[in-house]
Write a structure and sequence with these properties.
Bound molecules: flavin-adenine dinucleotide
Largest sheet: 8 strands, antiparallel
Number of strands: 18
Number of helices: 14
Shape: globular
Mean pLDDT: 93
Strand order of the largest sheet: 14-11-13-12-16-17-15-18
Low-confidence stretches: 1-22
Length: 465
């Protein structure tokens, strides 16, 4: 661990000024449902500023990336929030070794713009490009990449800023405990200031899609997706009877491009897509989607660049939230063989509790190589649920209740749930889904003995000193 010299007072004053600190601010996230009053927000642009802020601030700290997490994971009452979004430079690109070193506040979109002229692409990222690299590492995100995720598998090393202001390099070979703690560690151990990520060539991909019974899906996945030249894959689960899926794969191709743009244009018009989504709610909407909208949407061949599909924008989902509603996500992971049984139990729960998801997508994730808060301890299917809810107290409580029931179902199937979304799980459920949480907490006590790194997630589950 290297450490930095103490600062003169003038330096501290300048740093605070440059970091654009703001008095008593409300920090919120993309749902608009989690306003948190922080002492102030500082948005540093240089490493020295970041280090000085951590060293000089006497109280608790939180870390904010793109603020797309949905349960207050970026802040806690009265903290200094380090807003990482202006800490966004590409530091070093090595096309030979296929790696890039970046500051952690960079978004995937910014990174794609940098990589695309070199015909390179991130090995793993989420399905949209708006998130910061630091926020993605801190949840150990995954995408639709077949045989690649979780994201930790594509990280060569990170540089971490700890609560005492020291900087430390971590990788699977060096300070491995910190590496596997900070990735997926929701800002609980310190700031990931830099990351070195693995890259892949930017190749052409061609979309193939068809509908099949859920009962045939796993055999199809074995035969035509896993180890079959497919880069990205997901399946849409139709929620009228939870028995049919539409598979969507993007496989490597040499065919003529049907979409020549290298990246999704920043000003793409999403009106048609949004209207189609708006009418596909409820059981009738699900049938309309399955019988009319999706066949129309997937009818045309699509051959594009990998980076084009990687650069999708959450703008297509807008509005994510409004004055009295929010669209929210949830995600559950189950071992491969338990997929159909989990879906049957979930469908029955949703019918009983009158839950009408807008979309359920099935993805596949490889087993985690050893992060302390691993969400997939073996090769698993992931079910991503997109849902519209009112923000009233009673509706929140209703969602909390069915969420806890669904977590119980996932646990009964030896699965788990994802942590960046609304924090409804009981402490017992959290520990059952994340059995190495105590190891993570022991590490946190060692590197953060004063409980400086806080947010709503750790407020909920970390037994603070
Ligand atoms: C529409 C939508 C689609 C999504 N799709 C996917 C998907 O396909 N796959 C998937 O896995 N997830 C998905 N997510 C979840 C998303 O990956 C996470 O919410 C991710 O954290 C968002 O990144 P962010 O930059 O907004 O992070 P934030 O929400 O700002 O932060 C998330 C956590 O990371 C911590 N953090 C942020 N930056 C740092 C840093 N530099 N160092 C240390 N800690 C830090 C924060 O303190 C917080 O605890 C989706 C979310 C939305 C809203």
């Amino acid at each position: 661990m290297s450490s930095l010299r103490p600062l003169p007072l003038l330096g501290v004053a300048l740093v605070l000024l440059c970091a654009r600190a703001t008095a008593a601010e409300i920090v919120n996230d993309v749902t608009g449902m989690n306003p948190i009053q922080v002492a102030r927000v500082a948005a540093p642009t240089e490493l020295e500023e970041l280090v000085r802020l951590v060293r000089e601030h006497p109280g608790p700290l939180s870390i904010g990336g793109g603020r797309y997490s949905m349960g207050g994971q970026t802040a806690s009452d009265g903290v200094l929030q380090l807003d990482m979004r202006r800490f966004d430079k590409v530091l070093e690109l090595d096309p030979e070794r296929r790696e890039v070193r970046v500051q952690a506040g960079i978004t995937w979109r910014q990174l794609l713009e940098h990589l695309d002229p070199h015909d390179l692409s991130p090995q793993v990222m989420q399905s949209y490009a708006n998130f910061t690299v630091g926020g993605s590492l801190s949840v150990n995100a995954h995408g639709r990449y077949v045989g690649q995720g979780p994201l930790v598998l594509a990280v060569r090393s990170i540089r971490l800023l700890l609560a005492d202001g020291s900087l430390v390099q971590a990788s699977p070979q060096e300070n491995a405990e910190l590496f596997y703690g900070a990735i997926g560690g929701y800002g609980g151990l310190g700031v990931i200031v830099e990351a070195t990520l693995a890259l892949e060539p930017n190749r052409r991909i061609e979309r193939v899609s068809r509908v099949m019974p859920l009962a045939e899906y796993r055999a199809y996945f074995e035969r035509e997706v896993r180890d079959a030249g497919v880069l990205m894959h997901n399946a849409i689960l139709y929620t009228d009877d939870y028995r049919q899926v539409r598979v969507v794969s993007h496989r490597f191709s040499h065919a003529e491009l049907t979409r020549p743009e290298r990246l999704v244009p920043a000003d793409r018009d999403y009106r048609l897509l949004r209207s189609a989504r708006a009418v596909s709610t409820g059981a009738v909407g699900a049938r309309l989607r399955e019988g009319v909208l999706d066949p129309w949407y997937y009818r045309k061949p699509l051959v594009q660049w990998r980076n084009h599909e990687a650069s999708l924008d959450v703008a297509e989902l807008q509005p994510i939230s409004g004055a009295d509603f929010s669209h929210v996500l949830q995600e559950y992971f189950v071992p491969e063989a338990r997929l159909e049984s989990f879906i049957a139990a979930m469908g029955e729960l949703f019918e009983r509790r009158q839950v009408n998801p807008l979309n359920i997508s099935i993805r596949h994730a490889r087993a985690d190589p050893g992060t302390l808060l691993a969400w997939a301890r073996e090769d698993s299917f992931a079910l991503v649920i997109y849902y519209r809810q009112a923000v009233s107290g009673s509706e929140r409580e209703r969602v909390a209740q069915w969420t806890r029931s669904l977590i119980d179902i996932a646990l009964a199937h030896e699965g788990s749930y994802y942590l960046p979304y609304q924090i409804h799980a009981s402490s017992a459920q959290f520990h059952a889904a994340y059995p190495r949480a105590e190891e993570f907490f022991a590490l946190k006590r060692r590197v953060d003995p004063q409980y400086r790194w806080r947010n709503r997630l750790w407020d909920a589950y970390y037994p603070s000193p």
